[in-house]
Amino acid sequence: MTTAGHVVTGLANYTNPLPYTVYMANKSFIEENPEIIQSFVRAVQRGQEWVANHSPTEIAEVIAPFFPHSNLDDLTFIVNRYQSQDTWPQDLAVNQDGFYLLQTIMEHGGELQQWVDFSSLIDNSFTSN
Q1: Closest CA to 90 of 17, 8, 1
Q2: DSSP 8-class letter at 68
Q3: Is there a contact between 116 and 103 (Cβ–Cβ < 8 Å)?
Q4: Count of other CB atoms within 10 angstroms of residue 71
């Protein structure tokens, strides 16, 4: 049996900015290893900048080995869609509105029982360096 899905619309068209990917570390690790955290953030930022400055074809060629069951044309099509929706952020800082929108989505999906205050969980101090 073959199942096929069809994209009706991109979630990013309605939810930007939404922090769909975040990185976490214990507060003690951050305090004891700020240089590691800063290096990691710089590396992620360079990756985001690379994606922003390359064509969908170039990106698809680079990521293709990670998707062995997908062909280059499909990957290029998907990357193009992500770029046209501004899915990949230029700024790594987590936006407070996006953070609360994420919690709303999780709550409506039955995955969040209690909201978390932005300032108690998010540290954007490394994103501005």
Answers
A1: 17
A2: T
A3: yes
A4: 11
Q: What is the pLDDT of residues 68-116, one digit of tens each?
A: 999 999 999 999 998 988 888 888 899 899 899 999 999 999 999 999 9
> 43 is written with which tokens?
């590396």
Mention every residue, 6+ apart, whose C-beta is less than 8 A from residue 101: 15, 18
Tell me how far apart the alpha carbons of residues 99 and 37 are, in angstroms, rounded to a whole number: 21
- Percent of the chain scoring above 90 in pLDDT: 67
Q: Residue 94: left if φ>0, alpha if ψ -120 to 50, beta else—which one?
A: beta
Residue type at 96? Q
